[in-house]
Amino acid sequence: MLEGGTEPRTATGTRRSAPVIREASCCGVRITACSFEDAVAAVIGIPAKGDDEAPVTDAGSAIHLCNAYTLALADRDARLKSTLNTARFNFPDGWPVARLTRQRTRLSEANSQKISGPDLFQAVLSAGRDHDVKHYFLGSTPEVLEALERSVRKAYPGVQIAGVESPPFRELTPDERAEQRLRIIASGADLVWVGLGTPKQDWEVERLAAEIPAVFLAVGAAFDFLAGLKPRAPRWMGDYGVEWIFRLVSEPKRLWKRYLVGNPQFILSVLRNRGH
């Protein structure tokens, strides 16, 4: 249990033999509709669409967690929209995107759920121990990564952390990119969790997935939450779609534009892209 008693939304009980995974277009971006349980299974490499399809870990794959801010940015940035639309999965991270996805796929709430980045991170760390999954943490500062690794090892005994890396806060040189690629490959990591902030992390996930046979996931502030360095909103706020208020009050200088400008932009984008 991390973050002062917040537990990951993991699935318990027997998995369905036929997972339900569909897609819906939200603001022109393909969003994945599925249960939280099936999202976890897909990430750790269990075939998501039937036994005849190869697991996601057979090749380099990009996975994004898309909230309203991400889609608002993508609506105004053709490059970001293209990046998201070529990804393996774009999970709905946030109540507005999850609800819109559910409406457009006409799936039940059980089969089309919100996939929060921190919840997915925790659940995969836990479930991955039974599947020999090796993790790599890429992003943030050395101090955050040190606290994250300590917290994760304590919460999930037996978890395999293949490596951690805090890249410089600038564009990498070609030589640095090549060295980074070799480090990740040499680590044997299956899943590389990237926490660099939107949209930088989305560019990096796309780039790395094209070069390395692993799964790369853009998870935003999940590192800070799991490291215990930032408070997370109570679960009920996330369930009612008002988690953003808690985050805005916690970090007004950093997040005011994301919520006070990004949320209205998301609404306008939904209205402009009805049916798309």
UniProtKB/TrEMBL annotation:
Q: What keywords are assigned to this protein?
A: Glycosyltransferase, Transferase
Molecular function (GO) terms for this protein are: hexosyltransferase activity
Q: From the UniProt annotation, give the residues forming the signal peptide.
A: none
Keyword Nucleus included in the entry's annotation: no
Concerning InterPro entries, the annotation shows: WecG_TagA_CpsF
Domain of life, per lineage:
Bacteria
List, alphabetically, the NCBIfam families matched.
wecG_tagA_cpsF (TIGR00696)
Q: What is this protein identified as?
A: Glycosyl transferase, WecB/TagA/CpsF family
